[in-house]
Every structure is written in C-alpha cells, then in structure tokens.
Specification:
- There is one protein chain.
- 54% of the residues lie in helices and 0% in strands.
- The chain is elongated.
- The chain is an all-alpha fold.
- It has helices spanning 12-34, 41-54.
C-alpha cells in the first residue's frame, strides 16, 4: 500500500476555519457513534482528531513583530 504525505500552508483565517471545521466534524461523528452508526464515523473522527492535534505544530511567523 502506498502512503502519501501532504504539506499544506494555511493563513491565519484559513487555520481558524479549519480548526472550527475539524471540531464540528468530531462533534458530528461523536453524535453518530452515540446513535450506533459505526463506519465511517469512527475513522473520520479519528482522522479529524489527528489533524487537529497537528494543526498548530509547525507554525512560522510570516510578517509582523515578534519582540517576545
């Protein structure tokens, strides 16, 4: 089986939207799982949680000040 790695660059507003969308997907899948609907909800929920955990892991400042 072939596995791919995807690199994606998001700006601030896109990242905020992606976080909200992932949380909504997790909520939706959790509700479906509670209703007894398994596949593909378990897989989608697991993938959304994995992406959400990585969302801010490799952030680089592109402009502005960082005087810390």
């Amino acid at each position: 089986m072939t596995t791919y790695v995807y690199r994606l660059t998001l700006n601030d507003s896109e990242c905020i939207m992606m976080e909200a969308a992932l949380k909504l997907m997790i909520k939706h899948c959790t509700e479906k799982l509670a209703q007894g609907e398994g596949a593909p909800n378990w897989a989608h929920k697991n993938s959304a949680e994995n992406v959400l955990s990585k969302l801010y892991s490799d952030t680089n400042q592109n402009s502005g000040n960082n005087f810390g």
